[in-house]
Amino acid sequence: MLRLDTHLDPEAYRVTVERHGVRIDGGGPAGVFWGAQTFRQLLGPAAFRRAPVEPGRAWSVPMVAIEDAPRFAWRGLMLDVARHFMPKDGVLRYLDLLAAHKLNVLHLHLTDDQGWRIEIKRYPKLTETGSWRARTKFGHRASPLWDERPHGGHYTQDDIREIVAYAARLHISVVPEIDIPGHSQAAIAAYPFLGNTDVVDTAALTVWDTWGVNPNVLAPTEDVLRFYEGVFEEVLDLFPADPAQAANGAPGAPSNAPRASRTPFSGFVHIGGDECVKDQWRRSPAARARLRELGLADEDELQSWFIRHFDRWLADRGRRLIGWDEILEGGLAPGAAVSSWRGYAGGITAARAGHDVVMCPEQQVYLDHRQDGGPDEPMPIGYVRTLQDVYRFEPVPPQLTEEEARHVLGAQANVWTEVMENQARVDYQTFPRLAAFAEVAWSRLPAPEERDMADFERRMGAHYRRLDALGVDYRPPAGPLPWQRRPAPEGMTGGLGRPIEGSPPNV
């Protein structure tokens, strides 16, 4: 029996298994859905397969009473489909995996220097030109290896509508990211006037084929603002603030899935705002003149002008801007929320100023970083982040007061795909660490140093069998399987767990 209990919080649930029946109560439709995920866990790993492997099997579950509720409202995964494109079916599969772990936000990183992945009908060259690169750096940017095959792809507008509608059926918000003003070479390659044409031959630019921080940034002109307003107009249509109506009629959604309600963060739009190299603005006479015209003190304030413009533009349409913590530079837009990735400092600053924060520090929850320092691990990027490191992640910094801590919406693990050229590599980097992150984001755990890692690893023994049933190509606890190994070229290992000199921050 499924039913609503308004005495519970919207995402809270109660599962009661008695001798003659099962009852799942939820404070809202999402709570009922999360309770159903817990009940599926009680049924055992076979319940995670798409079809029964033992026809006619009698299912049994222990008699229990479980009442639970999430600690954080925002429990997210950032999936970078710009660096390496993930086809639509792969994204839908990851939505299923998020739902199985009671995660409720998919932050979809759709544009970057290496590719533009979303169809914008009024600007067709964004995908005709911007979604394909001629070749790809293989591994870390310091690697001597290249994949000489063209790489690319994009989602049609109907693909995006399907993804958003299916996510809403699973009570997951999809937050799109369209990068401005940096990480924009793919867009500039498609429409050269977007770049700083007085200091760069933007017509000669192509979609970038390597990794790191790119110097090509958008020009601070009215034409660029109008262009991106056009982009965002179509984005808002594709990512509605209330996707429930579309979701309730979505093709391909499971017939037994609960009818969707408004997902809590569907009104957010991520604008990037990170790693904006300002050298071109400093050299550009046009940018310098623009800075003086606007009465701005420096290039940091010019970046803030970009962010503030779109904060107001989105707010006028009932939406909310969120960006990486560099949007603090030059003054934070009044309504903006912050994704704190460069450690905790940006999140602390934002929360103290009264802005909402999603904690996703690189040092704890960047899942593209290596899981172990052994020589059989895939080509290194960043530092070692073990399963234990992720399990000991604490989203709320102790420096915050109780009032300030209320601005921490939650936490997010980030999967940047420079070194992940296919689904198997994404699985390997993401799991099992995403399971540890999911427990941190949902549960009220003890202080990091008091968390029982031995108990978590014991429970993971059962969860690995669920991941097997789901077809997840995770990293086994004993180390990579033979087909998962991809050692770095000689001289590039950076030692056991130490990054290569100049390891990029990945965002």
UniProtKB/TrEMBL annotation:
Keywords: Glycosidase, Hydrolase. GO terms for cellular component: membrane. Its EC number is 3.2.1.52. Residues 478-507 are annotated as: Disordered. GO terms for molecular function: beta-N-acetylhexosaminidase activity. Residues 72-444 form the Glycoside hydrolase family 20 catalytic domain. It catalyses: Hydrolysis of terminal non-reducing N-acetyl-D-hexosamine residues in N-acetyl-beta-D-hexosaminides. Pfam families: Glyco_hydro_20, Glyco_hydro_20b. Residues 6-69 form the Beta-hexosaminidase bacterial type N-terminal domain. Belongs to the glycosyl hydrolase 20 family. This is beta-N-acetylhexosaminidase. The lineage of its organism: Bacteria, Bacillati, Actinomycetota, Actinomycetes, Kitasatosporales.
